[in-house]
Amino acid sequence: VLPAVSLDGILHLDIQNCAYTAVMFNQFIDVLLDNMNPYPQKNSVIVMDNASIHKSPYLRVMIEE
């Protein structure tokens, strides 16, 4: 289960029967970004831990755009 949670509730949720890959995580973030706003608006900050799938250079570019 992979949720994206804000102070107001769940922004996006994905459930898989396997471990997430970088490709799957990037797809999750791509959909999540449709529910987010530019900083400093509401729902504008993404917080992730240091899991290897969170360290993709493509992911950083996708989020910053």
| SS-based class | alpha+beta
What is the count of helical runs? Answer: 2
Dominant shape: globular
Mean pLDDT: 92
Radius of gyration: 12 Å
In the predicted model, the low-confidence regions spanning at least 5 consecutive residues are none
Helix content: 25-40%
**Sheet with most strands:** 2 strands, antiparallel
Work out the count of structural domains: 1
Beta-strand fraction estimate? 15-25%
Q: Give the CA-CA distance, first to last residue.
A: 26 Å
Order of helices and strands: EEHH
Number of strands: 2
Strand order within the widest beta sheet: 1-2
Describe it:
β1 and β2 form a beta hairpin. This protein has a two-stranded antiparallel ribbon. By secondary structure, the protein is an alpha+beta fold. It has 2 helices and 2 strands. The termini are far apart. The chain has one domain. Helix content is 29%, strand content 17%.
